[in-house]
Amino acid sequence: MTEHAASPRRGDTPAAHAPAPQHVVETMTGAQSLIRSLEAVGADTVFGIPGGAILPAYDPLMDSTKVRHILVRHEQGAGHAATGYAQATGRVGVCMATSGPGATNLVTPIADAYMDSVPIVAITGQVTSKAIGTDAFQEADICGITMPITKHNYLVTDPAEIPRVIAEAFHIAATGRPGPVLVDIAKDALQATTTFRWPVETSLPGYRPVTKPHAKQIREAAKMLVTAKRPVLYVGGGVMKAGATAELRILAELTGAPVVTTLMALGAFPDSHPQHLGMPGMHGSVPAVTALQKADLLFTLGARFDDRVTGKLDSFAPYAKVVHADIDPAEIGKNRPADVPIVGDAREVLADLIVAVQAEFDAGHKGDYGDWWERLDEWKTTYPVGYEPAPGGQLSPQQVIERIGRLVGPDAVYAAGVGQHQMWSSQFIRFEKPGTWLNSGGAGTMGYAVPAAMGAKAGRPEAAVWAIDGDGCFQMTNQELATCALNDIPIKVAVINNGSLGMVRQWQTLFYNQRYSNTVLHAGPGHDGIEPPAQGTRIPDFVLLAEAMGCVGLRCERPEDLDAVIKQAMEINDRPVVIDFIVHQDAMVWPMVAAGTSNDEIQFARGVRPDFGDDLD
């Protein structure tokens, strides 16, 4: 398997391949220095909105021939677009906002990027340095606000510091465990005259990520893998971030061990591969969830034992020893003690593991997983991911998403919002390649899909980019459709419209006696949420909304029209397209592990718990 072009290794930025710039010393404003610094680090796209404190930077930005600025409609859209750009390209995403409310509108996407380890640099304007701390107009302590949700942040009051800070910000964001970095620049620093010097020497003595794993730990991990009877390769998003998917496949096929890929790792290992069991977790496949529960070895690569994967932690994988490899030593042992901890870059770890496992094979030590696979294959056959057809000729949301995946294909980039449609997308789209699945995994941010798809399409204009969104999520950030229409970013948006906040409604159905408190989106007070909306009641009408935003609006309500409408959308490439899929409102996401319960309590369907009928059940 060759590495997909959309998934370069961590820190692989355009600047890494550009010729080293000559030592330049020029006199210019701090604002000009900022734009020159962005050009020097290889930033080619910035998503943002101007305002008073950041305005000095927008004047020289107008003259840049290397940095494209995309004027968004809300700063949250700028942040998620930077994240989508970074996830789709592997480069650092950049967003820009003014002080006060402009900066605070970036907090949600910064937190989102932090949770999902996405490299972005957020540049904000700040009030003048003398006014800082005086409650000046549009002042907010954005460094203090974002300290817990950034990998690092800077407050710049000296214009001479701008080149160094920008170079460091991009380096920190892209290396080690990726993450967001905030650069807050006082307005007077942008306006003042300074001497610009590039290149700068980056000296960060306290920041030295360990990338090369310890050889002894690698040998010990290889021995555990070949002596295990029921191993599982538990693969997280760190493998994707490191560009290590080719090495993962080599190790998996060399050992013959089963593979599960978390929500953040979909596409790191082909869904169609016979060794792939699916996604683990609250709405994971029965084989994936159960394999972790019955395993005697969790071979954990770039994953963090998230609560959505483990369920009730003290009952998770009770028979398993743990090998845990991660670039971030803080993750190892945080939730589950590791028998063999390995700190290092996933690509380096996997490359060394391949050599160590082959050495074990050459010495006559090879794992026998025959009995294990017999059981796994039985679970795969007995408990496949599926869904009940919608009643009365209505559209099933699972069917809609499945057909989009089949017709659009595995080369497209899919961005999902958060909720039922996100889980159905993870289940029914076949992800074969890295860099093709974008979602808000850790923070679970509604409104992520449309701006993230916009950012992905801006970074990879040659790719087909689809946002799979719910009608609730869509109403949070759909204003960025106007941004897409005006900036030649022709994304496709599939709105899975069930008239409600679907995942919350599912929980109300299962755990709150069908009391649908404030989850109905298509009706006002007094509607019980059980009856579908009256014929013709559509507030808002997404087709008209799309057309008002300069997009093509389509609607599909019948299964027999499904393929034709998807194909119609695929043929339109000069404007964004929004498809309003009116789907069955009572569809639920299965399998499911209820929050706070053990993964042993997984339900295949409502009221149906798998019976594995063995001594480990």
Automatic annotation (TrEMBL):
EC top class named in words: transferase
Details of cofactor binding: Binds 1 Mg(2+) ion per subunit.
Catalytic activity, as annotated: 2 pyruvate + H(+) = (2S)-2-acetolactate + CO2
Gene3D superfamilies: 3.40.50.970, TPP-binding domain
Thiamine pyrophosphate enzyme N-terminal TPP-binding domain: residues covered: 28-143
Residue ranges occupied by any Thiamine pyrophosphate enzyme central domain in the UniProt entry: 218-353
Cofactor or coenzyme needed: Mg(2+); thiamine diphosphate
EC identifiers of the protein: 2.2.1.6
Coiled coil: none
Annotated PROSITE patterns: TPP_ENZYMES (PS00187)
Listed Pfam families: TPP_enzyme_C, TPP_enzyme_M, TPP_enzyme_N
Family statement drawn from the similarity comment of this UniProt entry: Belongs to the TPP enzyme family.
The protein, known as: Acetolactate synthase
